[in-house]
Specification:
This protein is α+β, with helices and mostly antiparallel strands. It is built from five helices and six strands. The strands form two sheets. The protein has a four-stranded antiparallel sheet with strand order 2-3-4-6. It is globular and about 60 Å long.
Length: 138
């Protein structure tokens, strides 16, 4: 029993340390923590989305809708890639890491093997670097 209690205490402390580290990293990197957004890719998104089109794929359509900009498609407004999801808003580029499950879904869609719609949560932050601000390399 004592070992189990010690193990749980170590796990709890490590978990709190990781969370605190992430908050401190975001603070010192100048990132403002954003609430999670629910992204819902619908059957219509799948029907109208373009395979291998990072600004026109079903996930791009769902992102544009989630940010209240359903008519703004294309890589100048929204970009879905294997590493990050990006949406241009009036405040600048909002960026979130692409979750492994979403990355696999996008790959399946591009190969014609997507089985159905997908729903996921993503935590976006306002990009801070010059490359992130413009969406293009300097």
């Amino acid at each position: 029993m004592t070992i189990a209690v010690i193990f749980l205490a170590v796990v709890l402390v490590a978990g709190c340390g990781l969370l605190a580290g992430r908050v401190l990293f975001d603070f010192f990197a100048g990132r403002e923590r954003a609430p999670r957004r629910r992204i819902e890719v619908t059957e219509e998104d799948m029907r109208l989305g373009v395979r291998c089109g990072p600004g026109y794929c079903p996930v791009a359509r769902a992102l544009a809708r989630a940010f209240g900009q359903p008519d703004y498609l294309g890589i100048d407004w929204v970009v879905c890639g294997p590493e990050s999801l990006r949406v241009l808003t009036t405040a600048g580029w909002q960026v979130a890491p692409t979750a492994r499950r979403v990355r696999r879904w996008m790959q399946d869609f591009d190969r014609g093997r997507a089985r159905g719609p997908v729903v996921f949560d993503a935590e976006f932050h306002l990009a801070v670097g010059p490359q992130e601000r413009t969406g293009h390399s300097a």
